[in-house]
């Protein structure tokens, strides 16, 4: 006698002897605790200004008047809360959290994915306990297989049995989430350790190197063979005289004084060159250049506040101990106003205009401006962006339902049952429609 083919349902939940340390590291509660701890420390680092001078913390966080003396400058500096993201203990927390994610991925998520891919065919004896629908009218399994294929199911067939599933990508989303978190954490750590931020206020037309370092990681390095220049600077104003945008033309030279690139930057439109990014952040007026008689001179200007609260710049050209010419600037696109000792307006000057004071002709040559440039190196940013992209992708994939359908023929009857990990009501309606179509479907082949 021929042996009857028996197909059994395999649940894939065989016990494995994991190391106890892997079981601890893959614990969900431990991962959540580490995530909340990192979030709390990051919150503190976002509230407390980072990488400022000691005088700044003494002024902003004095010892008196602070709640329980927790946020005094002594506590902040002692706990190194003024550079949280570069601290060794913060990096250790990130590393430990990454280890828990890796352990959870290999010990939990990947086995679940493997189980989901197993071919699960129920033995007919088990069908009675989980039956949903019994068909006694049309007992052809081929009809059911046809409908499953039409609905994009992957179908596996045995003798008098069939199994179909779809939405396996929904089971992959937790693994993608873990990978994206590892990329985000890894990229952030690389930026903390290997990046730097510098801030330069450069006069128009001047060359500069990266010197004023605001913050730098322990492995951060500044390029020494590159020279930068602020070729030009100007401001666009709105109709209401408010600032619309300010621009700088930046030139970059190599160590052979060859101009390798040039670009106009503005707020939110930086210049990127060899992993170095230059942002437009600020501006200022340093002084004015004048022709007094036959001599060219420069006089400094200082910022002040006008009567209506607007920012102005004021400079003085002394002629004697009791007599001086005052210059007032309120906008770069406007004229410069000159006043005498009594505060009376003498004349409004444009570029190359002249004014006579104390029998001396004075001609306005130029307004000297400075451009505020932030220079930043963030080597981990590609990994961080890639991690967030994968996180968004996993959020979309997670909405895919993993659905399974079993068909068993017992005698002249066909038993049908199904399972899904989400949207049970939707599966119920979908399942009933497929069964009705299977009953009515007429297949050319018979099983």
Compose a concise summary of this entry.
With 447 residues, the protein is of the alpha+beta class.
How does this structure look, described?
This protein is of the alpha+beta class and about 450 residues long. Helix content is about 30%, strand content about 35%. Strands 4, 6, 10, 11, 12, 18 and 19 form a 7-stranded antiparallel beta sheet that branches. The longest helix has 30 residues, at about 90-115. The radius of gyration is 37 Å and the shape is elongated.
Describe the sheet with the most strands.
7 strands, antiparallel
Number of strands: 21
The helix tally amounts to 10
Uncertain parts = 1-16, 124-132
Overall shape: elongated
Q: Which class do the helix and strand fractions yield?
A: alpha+beta
Proportion of residues in helical segments: 25-40%
Tell me the radius of gyration.
37 Å
Assembly form of the protein: single chain
Relevant terms:
447 residues, alpha+beta, 5-stranded antiparallel beta sheet, elongated, disordered N terminus, 7-stranded antiparallel beta sheet
How do the strands and helices of this protein lay out in sequence?
Elements: H1 20-25, H2 28-47, H3 54-60, H4 73-78, H5 88-117, H6 124-127, E1 133-135, H7 141-150, E2 154-158, E3 161-166, H8 173-194, E4 196-203, E5 207-208, E6 213-216, E7 227-237, E8 243-253, E9 259-266, E10 271-273, E11 276-292, E12 295-300, E13 302-305, E14 311-318, E15 324-329, E16 336-339, E17 345-349, E18 354-357, E19 360-377, H9 381-397, E20 403-410, E21 413-420, H10 424-440
Antiparallel strand pairs: 1-21, 2-3, 3-20, 4-6, 4-19, 5-7, 7-8, 8-9, 10-11, 11-12, 11-19, 13-14, 14-15, 15-16, 16-17, 18-19, 20-21
Helix pairs in contact: 2-5, 5-8, 7-10, 8-9
């Amino acid at each position: 006698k021929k042996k009857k083919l028996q197909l059994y349902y395999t649940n894939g939940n065989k016990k494995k002897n994991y190391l106890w340390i892997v079981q601890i590291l893959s614990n969900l509660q431990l991962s959540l605790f580490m995530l909340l701890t990192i979030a709390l420390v990051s919150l503190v680092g976002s509230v407390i200004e980072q990488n400022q001078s000691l005088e700044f913390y003494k002024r902003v966080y004095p010892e008196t008047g602070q709640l329980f003396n927790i946020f005094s400058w002594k506590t902040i500096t002692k706990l190194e809360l003024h550079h949280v993201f570069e601290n060794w203990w913060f990096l250790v927390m990130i590393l430990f959290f990454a280890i828990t994610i890796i352990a959870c991925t290999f010990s939990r998520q990947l086995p679940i994915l493997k189980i989901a891919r197993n071919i699960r065919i129920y033995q007919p004896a088990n069908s009675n306990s989980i039956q949903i629908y019994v068909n006694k009218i049309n007992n052809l399994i081929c009809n059911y297989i046809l409908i499953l294929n039409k609905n994009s199911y992957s179908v596996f067939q045995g003798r008098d049995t069939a199994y179909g599933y779809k939405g396996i990508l929904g089971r992959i989303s937790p693994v993608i989430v873990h990978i994206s978190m590892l990329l985000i954490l890894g990229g952030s750590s690389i930026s903390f350790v290997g990046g730097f931020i510098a801030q330069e206020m450069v006069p128009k037309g001047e060359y500069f190197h990266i010197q004023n370092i605001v913050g730098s990681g322990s492995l951060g390095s500044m390029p020494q063979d590159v020279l930068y220049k602020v070729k030009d600077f100007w401001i666009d104003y709105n109709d209401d005289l408010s600032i619309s945008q300010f621009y700088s033309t930046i030139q970059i030279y190599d160590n052979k004084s060859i101009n390798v690139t040039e670009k106009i930057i503005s707020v939110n439109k930086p210049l990127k060159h060899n992993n170095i990014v230059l942002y437009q952040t600020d501006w200022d007026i340093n002084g004015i250049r004048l022709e007094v008689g036959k001599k060219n001179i420069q006089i400094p200007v200082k910022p002040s506040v006008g009567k209506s609260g607007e920012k102005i710049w004021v400079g003085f050209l002394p002629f004697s101990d009791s007599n001086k010419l005052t210059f007032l600037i309120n906008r770069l696109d406007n004229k410069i106003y000159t006043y005498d000792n009594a505060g009376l307006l003498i004349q409004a000057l444009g570029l190359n205009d002249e004014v006579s004071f104390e029998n001396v002709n004075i001609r306005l040559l130029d307004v000297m401006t400075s451009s505020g440039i932030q220079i930043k190196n963030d080597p981990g940013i590609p990994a961080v962006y890639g991690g967030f992209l994968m996180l968004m992708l996993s959020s979309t994939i997670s909405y895919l339902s993993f659905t399974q359908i079993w068909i068993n023929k017992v005698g002249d009857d066909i038993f049908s049952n199904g399972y899904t990990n989400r949207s049970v009501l939707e599966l119920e309606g979908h399942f009933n429609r497929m069964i009705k179509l299977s009953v009515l479907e007429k297949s050319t082949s018979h099983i």
